[in-house]
Amino acid sequence: MIILKVFNNNSVVALNENRQDVILTGSGVGFQRKVGDIVDEKKIEKIYVFQDEQKKRIEDSLKSIPIIYFEITEEIVQKAETVLDTSFSGEIFIAIGDHLAFAVKRKQEGVYLPNIILSETRTLYNNEYQVGQWALRLIAKKTGVMLDEDEAGYIALHLVNFSLSNKSNNAIKILTLTKEVLELIQKTMKIELQEDSLAYSRISIHLKYLGERIFRNRNNQFEDTTANIRDMLKEDPRLALCINRIVKLIKNRYDYNLSPDEQTYLCIHLRKNT
What we know:
This protein has helices at 55-64, 67-84, 91-108, 118-124, 126-143, 149-161, 171-189, 198-216, 228-235, 237-254, 260-273, and strands at residues 2-8, 11-15, 21-25, 46-49. Strand 1 and strand 2 form a beta hairpin. It has three domains: 1-62, Transcription Regulation, Sacy, Chain A (Roll); 65-166, PRD domain (PTS-regulatory domain, PRD, Orthogonal Bundle), CATH 1.10.1790; 171-273, PRD domain (PTS-regulatory domain, PRD, Orthogonal Bundle). The chain is α+β, with helices and mostly antiparallel strands. Helix 9 (228-235) packs across helix 10 (237-254). The chain has a four-stranded antiparallel β-sheet with strand order 1-2-3-4.
């Protein structure tokens, strides 16, 4: 493998035997190395492979993103792999490195970009969010810039989306659906769910699993196997209105028909937690 760029003593970008761009990490893999050198493969500990169609973006990013942000990203990825017990695709280095470069620049210029799904991210992807919080302290140590909590949420989403354990890459869609349905529930049921409450957590997690089904399986085929929903809705007109609105929202926004079984589970969760 031939070195294309040296980040630091322990990480480089290289071209492998299949003409693919890869990021290599390992103790001393970049020590006293320069572009064009052959990689000492005995020092490679991890290999992160990029998709072929990403080649131009990778090359552009390597030229435009300051090396410090790749170094920070490498530490974040190592931390995440340990804490989350997962591996990541090579794209995560570009995604987080690019994001951090602009996030620090925005902070220095006094530009605030709110994360409108931060609450849902904290609840549904808390382990990734905790890594994001750790990353904020690392960034502050390396750059002298303390980013807002919103950025921990953005980092968490990158960790979810580029994890090799996550086959769907639908985190943002799921979080958006969860946020929309939670807002609809609170408005219709005339309640306020506290983010740190058990009710909020239970409903959010149920909606996350619902979202995963929606975005993985577009052609759902269910039979009406229960009459429970009809009884529950007869007893509670406001609950009936809420379920009806959720069904319409999901159909109109995501072209997905909630089955009677799925509606029943929603009813159970709402009756128990609202």
